[in-house]
Amino acid sequence: MSPDRSHCEGCFRTLDDIRAWSRAGNSERRRIWTEALCRAGIALPPGLA
């Protein structure tokens, strides 16, 4: 986890994201990864933003 415990330093998901992952459907998982990529400072490809 990051020093402030806001997200995982490896996958950039929050603790809530990690907890929800196993129950999440495809659209929810896409939302989680989109937010994680933004946290990581990685730009989304055109059409996915």
What secondary-structure arrangement, pairings included, does this model have?
Blueprint: H1 15-21, H2 26-40
What does this structure look like?
The protein is mainly alpha-helical and 49 residues long. The protein has one domain. Helix content is 45%, strand content 0%. It contains two helices and no strands. It is flat. The relative contact order is 0.15.
Terminal Cα span: 26 Å
- Total number of distinct structural domains: 1
Estimate percent helicity: 40-55%
Percentage of β-strand residues: under 5%
Kindly report the average pLDDT value.
92
How many strand segments?
A: 0
Rg from alpha-carbon coordinates: 11 Å
SSE arrangement, N to C:
HH
Q: Helical element count?
A: 2
Shape: flat
Uncertain segments are none
**Which structural class do the helices and strands define?**
mainly alpha
Largest sheet: none
Pfam family, one: DUF1289
InterPro entries: DUF1289
Protein name: DUF1289 domain-containing protein
Organism: Paenacidovorax caeni
Which keywords apply here?
49 residues; mainly alpha; 2 helices; 45% helix; DUF1289 domain-containing protein
Give a quick summary of the entry:
With 49 residues, the chain is mainly alpha-helical. Helix content is 45%, strand content 0%. This is DUF1289 domain-containing protein.
